[in-house]
């Protein structure tokens, strides 16, 4: 099994202009728990996760503030920082005590497209609980997907600098790359990079306890008035279920479950043709992927590239 310095995806941090509306949606409808708040800043946890929070919201112009990743210990944080320095990666700040909610020790860098990434260890964890049968709330953050106008260059950045591995890819009928699913642990993907017209958030995905909770959660969100963009269905790459919605800020967010687990020593990456209906949806229950559906996840141009968030 490959030993990587990055252990897992911890949280996503977004800036949104409609902060109060966004926070209300994620707490009242989506099923997250607010664990800390300040003026224009909210930290939201998942009841099934021991991460102190899985989503941070900040009041500002719409952007991805950062993606937070876990590292096993301080030695690995320092080793990863040294590797990225040797690779001439641009740092936001060096390894240090983190002063934000839950603390820890870590550092931040810009990825190849200019998104901010944080790598941390030693932060205060929270007490997770088992999600009850039929309880329609997220258990944890599953994965984060970025749009990139430089698809393969961006993927290469994560492979070369962070030792991520491509699990599967989506391609056009002519063999052109459309999306790469990437892992840093046995989960089929913790991030994915999609080809887009500009750099932006493609979607955030939240893991449910199981199929029953995923379906009940999807119905709950529909009743909230949020629009379902695509679903319900089951992807081929990752073998996970999907139901995509738009949050009040216009970001695509997903309820999913049963994401595949893979073994580094035996897994063979596949290249799935997006023109095959089974690639899009094994069950055939979701509407066929179209240009209109795809456009929803192009999102607005990210205004935060190579600009570190204030917190």
From TrEMBL:
Cited PROSITE patterns: VOC (PS51819)
A Pfam family hit: Glyoxalase
Every VOC domain range: 8-122, 140-258
Protein's recorded name: VOC family protein
InterPro entries noted in UniProt: Glyas_Bleomycin-R_OHBP_Dase, Glyas_Fos-R_dOase_dom, GlyoxalaseI/FosfomycinResist, VOC_core
Highest taxon of source: Bacteria
SUPFAM superfamilies listed in its UniProt record: Glyoxalase/Bleomycin resistance protein/Dihydroxybiphenyl dioxygenase
């Amino acid at each position: 099994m490959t030993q990587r310095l990055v252990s897992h995806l911890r949280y996503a941090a977004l800036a949104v202009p409609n902060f109060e509306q966004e926070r209300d949606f994620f707490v009242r409808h989506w099923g997250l728990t607010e664990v800390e708040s300040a003026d224009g800043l909210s930290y939201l946890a998942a009841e099934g996760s021991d991460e102190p929070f899985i989503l941070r919201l900040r009041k500002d112009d719409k952007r991805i503030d950062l993606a937070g990743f876990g590292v096993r210990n301080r030695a690995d944080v320092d080793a990863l920082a040294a590797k990225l320095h040797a690779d001439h990666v641009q740092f936001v700040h060096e390894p240090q005590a983190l002063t934000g909610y839950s603390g820890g020790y870590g550092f931040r860098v810009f990825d190849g497209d200019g998104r901010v990434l944080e790598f941390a260890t030693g932060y205060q964890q929270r007490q997770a609980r088992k999600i009850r049968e039929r309880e329609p709330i997220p258990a944890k953050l599953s994965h984060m997907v970025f749009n990139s106008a430089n698809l393969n260059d961006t993927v290469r950045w994560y492979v070369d600098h962070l030792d991520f591995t491509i699990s599967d890819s989506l391609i056009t009928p002519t063999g052109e790359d459309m999306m790469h699913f990437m892992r840093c642990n046995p989960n089929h993907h913790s991030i994915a990079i999609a080809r887009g017209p500009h750099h932006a958030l493609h979607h955030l995905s939240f893991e449910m306890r199981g199929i029953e909770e995923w379906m009940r959660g999807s119905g709950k969100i529909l009743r909230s008035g949020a629009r379902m963009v695509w679903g319900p269905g089951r992807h081929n790459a990752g073998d996970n279920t999907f139901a995509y919605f738009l949050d009040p800020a216009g970001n695509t967010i997903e309820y999913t479950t049963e994401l595949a687990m893979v073994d580094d020593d035996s897994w063979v990456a596949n290249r799935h043709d997006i023109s095959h209906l089974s690639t899009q949806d094994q069950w055939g229950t979701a509407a066929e992927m179209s240009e209109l559906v795809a456009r929803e996840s192009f999102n607005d141009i990210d205004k935060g590239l190579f600009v570190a968030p204030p917190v």
